[in-house]
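I hope you will forgive my troubling you with a question about protein structure. I set the record out below, with my sincere thanks for your time.
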Amino acid sequence: MIATSNFHYQPDEHELEKASNSYVMSLIAIMGGLPLPIINLIATFIFYLGNLKGTYFVRWHCIQALLSQLFLLPFNSVGFWWTISIIFTPENMTNNYIAYIITIFVFNLTEFIGTIYTAIATRNGKHVEWWVIGGLTHIICKNK
């Protein structure tokens, strides 16, 4: 799921910190806006906008963090609105609902652990690429 390598140049200390903070931003947003799945995406997007003129290394990691949040958004949104409909309508909790909640819990836990690992490894100067998301990041992020 995650591949760690060295970047094609050694980023400076401030680059490592900013790139790592792009992942930390999504973790902090989880704490602040846990029930609303869009909060993580918005916080990560704002951090990305703040680093648009940053180095390639920083932009690359901001985009990867943003794409990871974008990937989870549809799954989390369905779970959120399904839960709301169970709470506020006569709809009952079904086995399908429970299976879905368990599935998105596993997705989110995996993403959470991967994000912590990526933030630490990036801060230590390692270039971390997530499976599929890393490839998309290469397509989106162009080296100026």
